[in-house]
Amino acid sequence: MKNLLSAVSSGVLLLFSFEPFGLWPMAWIALVPLFHAMLGCEDARSAADLAGVTGLLFYGLSLHWLIKVFGPMAAAFWCVFALWLVLPAALWRRAAMGAPAWRAVVAAGALWAGAEYFRAEVWPLACPWLALGFSQVPCKPLLQLSSLIGVYGLSALVVSANAAFALALRGKRGPALAAVLGLAGAAAWGVCRMADPTLLGTEELKVALIQDESYDLDRMAGLSTAAEALDADLLVWPEYGFSVQAGQESSYAALISRRLRASRAVAILGGATLPEEPRDGGMRNFAWVMAPGGRLLGSYDKLHPIPFIEKYLRPNPRPEPVDTPLGLLGTLICYDLDFEDGARRMAGLGARLLAVPNLDPMEWKDWQHRQHSGMAPMRAVESGLWVARAASSGISQVIDPAGRVKAALPSGRSGVLAAKARLKEGGTPYTRLGWLLAPLCMMFCAVSLAAWMLEQVEERYAAFLTILS
Fold first, then answer.
1. What is the DSSP letter of 41?
2. What DSSP letter does each residue of 350-376 carry, written as one string?
């Protein structure tokens, strides 16, 4: 019963570490009860059972809003999420027993990050939501670490610190002291990075983000030419801001061009092509990039369609920034920003700002909106770029490269978010080499799993030989 209460405690602490609560310090101790209990388990299977309790409680409560999207099938998604918490927990219990404390601490972070990266970025049901590193978005000094090691590297640090604190409860205090000193040093470095004026760029521009869920072209155009948006340099509509029948794209682009005639902004307009029969292909989720005056400069198709919901969309094989009068602008559509590769690739290709048409229906409620918008600052820091994110019903945001939200429009409002942003050259140590840390952790996790499976086979083979003899 004591171990079960420890697992439940970790699930509750993890819940409060993330939005909409945002109590980020809890993440650094959330797994201590679970790890402490696992160290007392007889075997890895018992440790896995405890981790399953933590995972089901954490993901089930945090992602309760999935019921509005998938209905009863949401329970299956909670179980899948929990699985990728169970795996590193079981592997860590095996690796930690009898190992030096330092090795156990490093293994905890590497195994977690490897499994989390696979769950979030690699396998067919990839979903980055609630990666542990996202819990640190409210703590801007520590968030700066993601410019070096990204969200999964930050997850590894959080988990390793938890393992160190759990071992301290068993008398092994060296790693815990190092973790505290390391966090203090990282926070001090983060404060210095945030104070660097070159981080923000020098070319200022005004952005106007349209937040509206009407899907009505007249209303979208009216908001885009309202007084607060009329002098904007960059205009961004939400995802699925309009829809057009296949084959009518040129005439519809001309229609939008006429409606936006009064605007002098470069416009990035989220839209969709809807064929009569989506199964036959031709469905697109795209963003048009228009010059002032309405000339079509380019188009961007969604890189990461949402599994099941956008099953007829074909992923964009070559996402690239579009050359505009403002320079190269990178576009990512909604779910694309949740993954680490889109922002990283855009920065590497020379984008000077990330514009993000986004769809978060009001029926999914503020809890979901706050979780989703809480991920966007991570991508700004990883890529070193400003992010202008226009959400259909909120939360629209303008975010600087230090992850600070400079302006936002709350959930449920329809209107224009007008704010200042800057153009700058992107790229960070993370976009150059730091992103490789997560795949390396995944390889370590895979090797650890293979070694464990081989060990199980050898034990069973030895038992079989014993029976035969």
1. S
2. T-S-EEEEE---GGGHHHHHHHHHTTH
**Selection from 165, 154, 62 nearest residue 116 by Cα:** 154
Element (H, E) at 330: strand 327-331
> Mutual orientation of helices 74-96 and 437-468 as an angle, nearest 10°?
70
Claim: this prediction has a pTM higher than 0.70: yes
**437 token code pair:** 């840390």
Matching residue, tokens 């292909």: 281
Any idea which residue has 């920034």 for tokens? Answer: 321
Secondary structure letter of residue 338 according to DSSP: G
Assess contact for 211 and 395: CB atoms under 8 A: no
What value does the mean pLDDT of the chain take? 94
Taking the C-alpha atoms of residue 105 and residue 467, their distance in angstroms, rounded to an integer, is: 39
* Closest residue by Cα to residue 260 from 252, 390, 286, 415: 252
252 φ/ψ sector (left φ>0, alpha ψ -120 to 50, else beta): alpha
- Give yes or no for a contact between 268 and 237, defined as CB atoms under 8 angstroms apart: yes
Torsion 342-365-395-136 (CA) sign: negative
Type of residue numbered 373:
S
Q: Kindly tell me the sign of the dihedral angle through the C-alpha atoms of 321, 226, 370, 60.
A: negative
d(CA 349, CA 368): 31
- Please state, in angstroms and rounded to a whole number, the distance separating the CA atoms of residues 440 and 411: 38
Residues in the chain: 469
User: Which residue stretches of 217-373 are H helix?
Assistant: 217-224, 227-230, 249-259, 340-348, 365-373
Three-state DSSP class for residue 292: coil
Distances (CA, A) of 217 to 158, 243, 295, 402: 46, 9, 18, 35
Closest to 414 measured CA to CA, from 362, 356, 375: 362
User: Of the candidates 367, 449, 432, which has an alpha carbon nearest to the alpha carbon of residue 114?
Assistant: 449
Render pLDDT for 181-203 as a digit per residue (tens, 0 to 9).
Answer: 999 999 999 999 999 999 999 89
Q: Write out pLDDT tens, residues 4-43.
A: 999 999 999 999 999 999 999 999 999 999 999 999 998 8
Please give the Cα distance from 167 to 221 (Å, whole number): 59
| Two structure tokens written together for 27 | 């993440």
The answer to whether 268 touches 282, Cβ cutoff 8 Å, is: no
The backbone torsions φ and ψ at residue 29, rounded to the nearest 5 degrees and listed phi first, read: -130, 0
Which ranges constitute the DSSP H helices of 63-206?
66-70, 74-96, 101-117, 140-143, 146-168, 174-194
Specify the 3-state DSSP secondary structure of 459.
helix
